[in-house]
Design brief:
Length: about 210
C-alpha cells in the first residue's frame, strides 16, 4: 500500500476524520438539518489532536527521512481541510450564503493553503540547517482557529441571528490575513499547551451549555 503506516500519524488522521464529520454536520448531510454547533465541537477535537500529533511523532526515534517528510506533508494537507475548509463551511451554515460572502469563504482556505505551503518550504530548509525543534512560527498558525471560533460561536445568541454571520465573516477575513502576514509567534511549550487544553474544555462546556439553552 502507498504511504507510511505507523502510530505517528494516527492523531493526524483522527483530526481529519473529525473535521470531515464536522462538514457533514454543518451542511446537514445525513442528518436532520444543519448543526454548526456540533461542527464547532468537531473543529475543537481536530485542534486537540493536532496539538499533540507532532510530539507523538517525535517519540519514534528511528524514523527515516521519507517518514519525516511524509509526516510534514500529511499534517499540512489535513490542516488545510480541518482548519482551512471546515471554518468556511461552518460560516456558510450560519448564514454566510449570499453571493457577496463567497470571496471571504474562498479567501480563508486559500490563505490557509498559502501559509501551510510556505511553512513546509521553510521547515524543509530549516531542517537542513539544524535538528532543533522549531521555537517560533511565522504568521498566525492555522490551528489557532480551533480556539478562536468556538469562543465566537458561544456568543452567537448574544450577537444575534442577523448580526452573527457578519461578525463571523469579519473574523474569517481578519484571521485569513493573519495567516499570511509576516510576524513571529512563539511556539507554545507544554505548560502553555496544557492551558490551551483547559481553555478548550471550558469552551466545550460553555458551548454545550449555550447550545442546550438556545
Amino acid at each position: 500500500m502507498i504511504g507510511y503506516y505507523n502510530y505517528t500519524v494516527i492523531l493526524t488522521y483522527m483530526s481529519l476524520v473529525s473535521s470531515v464529520i464536522g462538514m457533514f454536520l454543518a451542511s446537514g448531510v445525513g442528518c436532520s438539518g444543519s448543526h454548526p454547533e456540533y461542527a464547532i465541537i468537531c473543529l475543537m477535537v481536530s485542534g486537540l489532536c493536532d496539538m499533540f500529533d507532532g510530539k507523538i511523532a517525535r517519540t519514534k526515534k528511528n524514523r527515516t527521512d521519507a517518514e519525516k517528510n511524509f509526516g510534514i506533508q500529511i499534517d499540512s494537507l489535513c490542516d488545510v481541510i480541518c482548519f482551512g475548509v471546515l471554518p468556511s463551511i461552518i460560516g456558510y451554515s450560519v448564514g454566510m450564503n449570499d453571493w457577496i460572502d463567497i470571496p471571504v469563504l474562498v479567501m480563508f482556505p486559500l490563505c490557509a493553503v498559502i501559509r501551510l505551503a510556505y511553512f513546509n518550504v521553510a521547515e524543509e530548509e530549516r531542517q537542513k540547517q539544524t535538528s532543533e525543534v522549531r521555537k517560533v512560527y511565522e504568521g498566525l498558525p492555522v490551528t489557532s482557529v480551533a480556539l478562536i471560533f468556538p469562543v465566537l460561536y458561544s456568543f452567537r445568541r448574544e450577537i444575534g441571528a442577523d448580526s452573527f454571520p457578519i461578525v463571523y465573516e469579519v473574523f474569517l477575513f481578519l484571521i485569513a490575513i493573519a495567516f499570511i502576514t509576516r510576524f513571529k509567534v512563539k511556539k507554545p511549550q507544554m505548560k502553555t499547551m496544557l492551558w490551551f487544553i483547559v481553555l478548550g474544555v471550558v469552551e466545550l462546556v460553555w458551548l454545550l451549555y449555550k447550545t442546550k439553552n438556545i
